[in-house]
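Researcher: I'd like a candidate sequence for this fold, 656 residues long. If you have to choose between options at a position, lean toward the conservative one.
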C-alpha cells in the first residue's frame, strides 16, 4: 500500500505552531535538519551587526567603487534638494507679489536672479531643468557603478560558495544534494549582492535626503521640523515590531524552495525508476504539496511585510495633514509666507519618502540577509582534509606507488558501525591486487580510503612510506585513475569527456587512448564523431559505451595508481576481452587495485585479497587461495557453477 503523505495544510499548521513555540523560546528557526540542507533553520541566525561585518568582508576589492558610487549619489541627492526651494521663490515673488515683500538681495545680487516676475519665472524654470539634468547624469553614472559592483560581487560570492562546496567532505556533499546546492548558488549567493542596494546604496540616499531636508526645514520653521521629527522613531519601532520577525520567515521560505529544487532534481534524475513503477502522479503530487507549503509560507510572510507598508500609508497622510493645518495657521497669522508653507510641504514629502523607503525596503533587506545567513552557514562548514603547514606536494614521475595500510579501521561519519577492521596490506609498486568478497564486505570503502575520499578512523595509510595525511590531497589525487561501475559523464562532447582527465590534451592523444579502450570504433560511427554531444550523464550512449569512455579517460590521466571498481561490468564478452588486454597494458608499472565480482577477470592478478565482514580473510594468488582458503574455494565454486548453468541454459532449446 502506498504511503499517505501529509497535506500541505497540516504541514503548514504544524510549521506555525513550531515557529511560535520556538520564537517564544528565542530559537525562531525551524525546518529541515542541517544534515539535509545546509543553511536551513535550526542553525541559529546571526545578529544584524555580525551579518554586516561579514558582508563588508565580502566587499574586499569592491570598496573603492562603492565609495565612488556613494559620492556621486550624494551630489545627485543634494542637487535634487534645490528645486523645492524654487517653489518659494515662484509663489512669493512671482505668483503672490506684495510691495512689502521684495525679492531678497542675496537672490538678485549673489545669484543674479532678475526682479521682473516673468523673467524670474523663466530663469527659475530653466534652472530647475538644468539642475535636474545634471543630477540625473551624475546619479545614473553612480548607479551604474553600483550595479556593476553588484554583479561582480554576485559572481565572486557564487564562485566562493561553489569552490567551498566542492571541497566539502564527501558525506556532506551527499547530504547537500544537487538541487540544494543549485538553490544556494542561485538564490542565496545571488541575493547577497543585492545588499549593496538594500543595505548601502538606498539607505545612504535616504540618510542624505533626510539630513538635507531637516536642515532646510529647520531654517524655515524649527517648530514644524520638530513636529516632523516625531515620525523618525517610527522607523525603529516598525523594525522592532515587524521586521525582526521577518528574517526567520524568509530563511524558512528559502529552505522550502531549496527542498522543492532538490526534489525536482531527484525526480528527473531518477525518471526511469519513476516511470518503471508508474509514480509520475505520485511525484507530481509530492512536488505540488511542497510548493503549496512554500506558497502558504510566502503568503504568511507577505502579510507581515505589507503591514509595514500599510502603517506608513496611514501615517504619512495623517502627518502631512497635521503639519499642513499647523502651517496654514502660521500663514494666516503672518508668521510664515505661503511660499514658506509650500516649500515646507515639498521638503516634508522629501523627508517622509526616505523614511517610508527605509521602513518598507527593510523587508527586502531581511530577505537578502536571510540569504547571506545561509551562505555563511555553508562557508562555515569545515573543508575536506584542510591543508596544514608541512604538507607535501608529490610529483607523479617521482612516485614509485607503494601503498601500505597499517591496522586500518573505518566508521562512516554519522554512523557507529565499523565497516573496516584491522586492515593491514602492503601493495608494491606495479603490483595488481584484486579485491573480492561478498557485497558489503568493504571493498569499495577500502578503495575510497586509498583514494582519500575519507581518512581512516584508526590506523594509517602510506604512500611510499609517507602518511597520506602529510601529503597535499589534491596533488595526491593527480596520481590516481579511477573507473567505477556507476559511470559519470558530463553533458558535453565525447572529446571533452575523455579530455577531462588532462588539461590541454590534443585530439591525437584522445584518439590514441580511445583506440586502446576500444571506443574509437563506436565513436567514429556517431553523427559528429568526437564532437558528438552525449547528453547529461551520457544518456545517448549505451552502458558499455559509457564504460569504455570512462576507461579511455582514466588512460589519458596516465595515473601512477589505478583503481578499477567493476570497470568491465557493462561490457559484452568480446569487448571485455579487448578491454582486459588494454587494461593489461595500462596497468604495467602501475599500482593497481581491482574490485571484481566476476572472478574470471582477476584470476591472473599478482595477488587476490578476500574481504569478509570488513576484515581480510585471506590473500594470495589464485592457486594459493584455492589450496588454502575455504571461503575463496566456495566463492569460486558458486560462481563457476552459476556460469556453467547459464551456459547450459543458453544451449538448451525449447521443445516444439
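Model: Candidate sequence:
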Amino acid at each position: 500500500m502506498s504511503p499517505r503523505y501529509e497535506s500541505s495544510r497540516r504541514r503548514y499548521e504544524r510549521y506555525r505552531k513550531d515557529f511560535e513555540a520556538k520564537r517564544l523560546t528565542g530559537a525562531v528557526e525551524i525546518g529541515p535538519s542541517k544534515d539535509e540542507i545546509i543553511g536551513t533553520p535550526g542553525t541559529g541566525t546571526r545578529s544584524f551587526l555580525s551579518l554586516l561585518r561579514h558582508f563588508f568582508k565580502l566587499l574586499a576589492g569592491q570598496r573603492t567603487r562603492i565609495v565612488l558610487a556613494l559620492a556621486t549619489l550624494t551630489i545627485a541627492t543634494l542637487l535634487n534638494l534645490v528645486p523645492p526651494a524654487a517653489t518659494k521663490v515662484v509663489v512669493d515673488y512671482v505668483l503672490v507679489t506684495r510691495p512689502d515683500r521684495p525679492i531678497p538681495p542675496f537672490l538678485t545680487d549673489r545669484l543674479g536672479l532678475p526682479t521682473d516676475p516673468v523673467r524670474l519665472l523663466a530663469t527659475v524654470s530653466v534652472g530647475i531643468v538644468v539642475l535636474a539634468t545634471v543630477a540625473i547624469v551624475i546619479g545614473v553614472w553612480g548607479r551604474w557603478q553600483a550595479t556593476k559592483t553588484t554583479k561582480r560581487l554576485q559572481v565572486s560570492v557564487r564562485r566562493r560558495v561553489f569552490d567551498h562546496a566542492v571541497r566539502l567532505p564527501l558525506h556532506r556533499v551527499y547530504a547537500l544534494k544537487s538541487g540544494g546546492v543549485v538553490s544556494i548558488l542561485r538564490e542565496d549567493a545571488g541575493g547577497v549582492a543585492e545588499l549593496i542596494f538594500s543595505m548601502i546604496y538606498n539607505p545612504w540616499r535616504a540618510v542624505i535626503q533626510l539630513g538635507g531636508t531637516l536642515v532646510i526645514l529647520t531654517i524655515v520653521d524649527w517648530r514644524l521640523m520638530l513636529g516632523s521629527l516625531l515620525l523618525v522613531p517610527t522607523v525603529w519601532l516598525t523594525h522592532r515590531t515587524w521586521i525582526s520577525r521577518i528574517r526567520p520567515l524568509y530563511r524558512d521560505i528559502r529552505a522550502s524552495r531549496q527542498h522543492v529544487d532538490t526534489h525536482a532534481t531527484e525526480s528527473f534524475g531518477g525518471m526511469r525508476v519513476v516511470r518503471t513503477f508508474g509514480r509520475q502522479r505520485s511525484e507530481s503530487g509530492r512536488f505540488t504539496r511542497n510548493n503549496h507549503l512554500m506558497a502558504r509560507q510566502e503568503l504568511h510572510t507577505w502579510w507581515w511585510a505589507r503591514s509595514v507598508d500599510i502603517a506608513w500609508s496611514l501615517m504619512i497622510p495623517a502627518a502631512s495633514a497635521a503639519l499642513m493645518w499647523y502651517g496654514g495657521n502660521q500663514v494666516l497669522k503672518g508668521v510664515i509666507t505661503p511660499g514658506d508653507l509650500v516649500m515646507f510641504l515639498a521638503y516634508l514629502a522629501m523627508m517622509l519618502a526616505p523614511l517610508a523607503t527605509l521602513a518598507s525596503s527593510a523587508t527586502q533587506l531581511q530577505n537578502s540577509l536571510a540569504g547571506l545567513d545561509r551562505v555563511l552557514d555553508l562557508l562555515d562548514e569545515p573543508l575536506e582534509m584542510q591543508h596544514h603547514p608541512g604538507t607535501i606536494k608529490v610529483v607523479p614521475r617521482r612516485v614509485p606507488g607503494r601503498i601500505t595500510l597499517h591496522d586500518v579501521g573505518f566508521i562512516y561519519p554519522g554512523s557507529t558501525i565499523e565497516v573496516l577492521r584491522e586492515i593491514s596490506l602492503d601493495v608494491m609498486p606495479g603490483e595488481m591486487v584484486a579485491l573480492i568478497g561478498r557485497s558489503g564486505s568493504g571493498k569499495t570503502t577500502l578503495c575510497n580510503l586509498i583514494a582519500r575520499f575519507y581518512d581512516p578512523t584508526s590506523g594509517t595509510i602510506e604512500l611510499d612510506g609517507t602518511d597520506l595525511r602529510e601529503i597535499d590531497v589534491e596533488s595526491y589525487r593527480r596520481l590516481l585513475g579511477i573507473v567505477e561501475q556507476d559511470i559519470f559523464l558530463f553533458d558535453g562532447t565525447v572529446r571533452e569527456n575523455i579530455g577531462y582527465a588532462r588539461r590541454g590534451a590534443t585530439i591525437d592523444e584522445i584518439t590514441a587512448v580511445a583506440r586502446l579502450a576500444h571506443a574509437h570504433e563506436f565513436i567514429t560511427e556517431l553523427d559528429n564523431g568526437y564532437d558528438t554531444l552525449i547528453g547529461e550523464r551520457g544518456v545517448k550512449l549505451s552502458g558499455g559505451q559509457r564504460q569504455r569512455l570512462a576507461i579511455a579517460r582514466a588512460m589519458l590521466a596516465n595515473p601512477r595508481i589505478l583503481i578499477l571498481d567493476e570497470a568491465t561490468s557493462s561490457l559484452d564478452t568480446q569487448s571485455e576481452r579487448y578491454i582486459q588486454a588494454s587494461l593489461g597494458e595500462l596497468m604495467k608499472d602501475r599500482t593497481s587495485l581491482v574490485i571484481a565480482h566476476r572472478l574470471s577477470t582477476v584470476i591472473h592478478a599478482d595477488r587476490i585479497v578476500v574481504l569478509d565482514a570488513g576484515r581480510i580473510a585471506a590473500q594470495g594468488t589464485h592457486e594459493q587461495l584455492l589450496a588454502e582458503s575455504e571461503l575463496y574455494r566456495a566463492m569460486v565454486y558458486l560462481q563457476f557453477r552459476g556460469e556453467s548453468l547459464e551456459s547450459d541454459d543458453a544451449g538448451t532449446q525449447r521443445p516444439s
